[in-house]
Amino acid sequence: MDNDMKLVVKGGTGEIVEKKSRFIANVFPVESEEEALEIISKMKKKYYDARHNCFAYTVGDDREVERCSDDGEPSGTAGRPMLDVILGENLYNVLVVVTRYFGGTLLGTGGLVRAYSESTKAGIAACEMKTKVRGFSFEVGIDYSLVGKIQYIAEMAGAVEVDAQYGERVNFRYNIHKDSAARFEADIIEKTGGKCELEKSEECWVEV
Predict the structure, then answer these.
(1) Quick one: which of 126, 111, 102, 130 has its CA closest to 25?
(2) Whole-prediction pTM
């Protein structure tokens, strides 16, 4: 995993003009490859009169799926440069579709790479983003008398409560930045006098 993960909360649109060719980049958050393919299909119908509708997307917390298409442009001049921008920006679960309306002048290989890259950047710049960082998940089981103390420790450490189960005891699940995990663990043990069940779980992404 990268050190941070950027996610699109709200998609956006950016446009550049290169030698009278219009490059319109539409950016979308996606949760699955099926969703990405459905949006691509809709974009091709929306811009049915365009010369090209190139795309790039990545899906999965570890980018299990990465795809791109030049859609008729010379090989390697559109989809791959678009995907490179996505990867360079540390974006996850995102789809970019760049529509080109041909302006009558050939741009050449370098010109196309530049135009598709810059239009992708313009679309991304128009989006609303959030960031997640690498961290760990902790399961904390305590008596009710310690709830306030645990919540205070978590707040001071910047831990994010993601679940709470109230039964005979209280069981919390927290996600926390990897750099704060050791201190968080030590504080819980120390300030509860060891009167807790504490389990450090798998690596996860934590929203900041």
Answers:
(1) 126
(2) 0.81
